[in-house]
Amino acid sequence: MNYFRTFTKGLIKENPVLVMLLGTCPTLAVTTLAMNGLGMGAATTFVLVCSNVVISLLKNFIPKQVRLPSFIVIIAGFVTFVSFMLRSNFPELYEALGVFLSLITVNCIILGRAEMFASKNNVRASFLDGLGMGLGFTLALILIGAIREVLGSGTFFGLSIGDWFQPIGFFSSPAGGFFVFGCVIALVNVLSNYKMSSKKIGCASCPNASACGQAEKGEIAE
Amino acid sequence: MNKLLVSPSPHFFTKTDTSAIMFDVILALFPALIAGIVFFGPRALIVTLVCVVSCVAFEWLVRKIMKRSNTIGDYSAVVTGVLLAFNLPPAIPIWMAVLGSFFAIVIVKQLFGGIGQNFANPAITARIILLASFGTQMTTWSKPFGYQGGVDAVASATPLADLYWANPWDLFIGNVSGCIGEVSALALLLGGIYLSFRKVINPLVPLTFIGTVFVFTWVLGENPVNHILAGGLMLGAIFMATDYATTPPVLGGKLIFALGCGIITTLIRVFGNYPEGVSFAILLMNLLTPLIDRIPMVNPIGKRKKGGAA
């Protein structure tokens, strides 16, 4: 296994938010400010790395039938830890993230990596996978948050970009969130040279194809 | 002797094409433009020209960048520009009008494939984005004839804010504050009659829309006459609820569309936070149009009735 590839694939090629379209709810909800994006990304990355490592360690002890509840218990433990940490050290960020901090527990990215990667690979690979996916998530959130903050509030990480700029309130609204999200996905598609060819539509083009294994069987329609 | 040509149908073409229809719409919009200039002065004309020029320029530019055929010749961008300007207050900063044109043409129209492919009305959507972004500037109304006294942009309420006691005659003529093109019901009706006469629009659609608002505001104890004369109802019902691309194609669907528009407009006006609901109503019904299209309303030729011969 190529450990470097395991780490970098989460950044662009299999970016959890922008390519796999997981974790859309927190992405749209907390990205009105770049700082919130950074905080949400960091908290999720921490939980993702820790849960990946622990689940990878325990993968031979967790019975297959109850693996999902077991994963959730492990993830929820780390989320509780992060939420207490933020509450005592960064109360403003804690207030801004609100319920979405607790909802990291059910974030599809974390459960998805546990189910598809950590429960099948060794600790080192799982750690790198969690770190890469978490960083990809964080970068996407910071990017969307920065665009929405600059255009919608006229600030960048809380610093005013000048009085000459009239903030466009649309970008702070949920509709603006969807709009920026779509534009960034389009940008990533251009960057990763995605082409809508007939070959690529179907199971084989899915970023999860290697983990899912259905594409090789050829059972799912092209 | 090779005069006998074999070709697939259609063999006859009407002379009506997109540019002819759009030209009719532009003509029909002229009375309202003149009314806007009379009541709000040269500023109204400047805003309209800025919107038209920037809409056409964006259309040309974005088609060029996307390497598609040039479509500014069909005048649809001109219509979008005029309709957008008609939905803006006269004192709006010029750059906001340009930004609105950008949203209307580039985002709403061209990103979805250009004329005939957009699912929402470009001018309406751009107006809503501007309203959501710049609430203050979008609701700073000029008093009619205020430009003659040197007082340009005075923040004054539209008649919608205090509708019950407004003078219906002023509302009909347009001697009230409001957006550039929406104030004069008379001028808009002239345009609507011209379009119906030219068979560009079906008059049943605006009549259903306006009639629904009349009935429902009456039932809810409002002043129904003032409700149908004030705000953007005439403009929306005649020129925007009849847009070809964003409304159902068959008559039954059109009437459901107009009915829905009227109900949503009334609900927003009477119970909502915004004084005006026409633009939101039309946008919401634009989004429902694909669903309305699924209701079977036209019997295919030769379809058998249940239990009997055709």
Shape field of chain B:
globular
The chain-level structural class of chain A is mainly alpha
The radius of gyration of chain B is: 21 Å
- End-to-end separation of chain B in angstroms reads 45 Å
Describe the structure.
The complex is a heterodimer of chains A (222) and B (310). By secondary structure, chain A is mainly alpha-helical. Helices cover 63% and strands 2% of the residues of chain A. Chain A has helices at 3-8, 24-30, 34-58, 67-89, 91-97, 99-102, 108-118, 123-153, 174-191, 209-212, 214-217, and strands at 155-156, 159-160. In chain A, strands 1-2 form a two-stranded antiparallel ribbon. In chain A, a hairpin with a 2-residue loop joins strand 1 (155-156) and strand 2. Chain B is mostly helical. Chain B has one domain: Ammonium transporter fold, CATH 1.10.3430. In chain B, 57% of the residues lie in helices and 0% in strands. Chain B contains 13 helices and no strands. Chain B has helices spanning 18-40, 42-65, 76-86, 94-109, 122-133, 135-138, 168-173, 185-197, 204-219, 224-229, 233-240, 251-271, 278-293. The longest helix of chain B has 24 residues, at 42-65. Chain B is globular and about 75 Å long. Chains A and B meet through loops of A and helix 5 of B.
Lay out the secondary structure.
The complex is a heterodimer of chains A (222) and B (310).
Chain A: H1 3-8, H2 24-30, H3 34-58, H4 67-89, H5 91-97, H6 99-102, H7 108-118, H8 123-153, E1 155-156, E2 159-160, H9 174-191, H10 209-212, H11 214-217
Antiparallel strand pairs in A: 1-2
Helix pairs in contact in A: 3-4, 3-7, 3-8, 4-5, 4-7, 7-8, 8-9
Chain B: H1 18-40, H2 42-65, H3 76-86, H4 94-109, H5 122-133, H6 135-138, H7 168-173, H8 185-197, H9 204-219, H10 224-229, H11 233-240, H12 251-271, H13 278-293
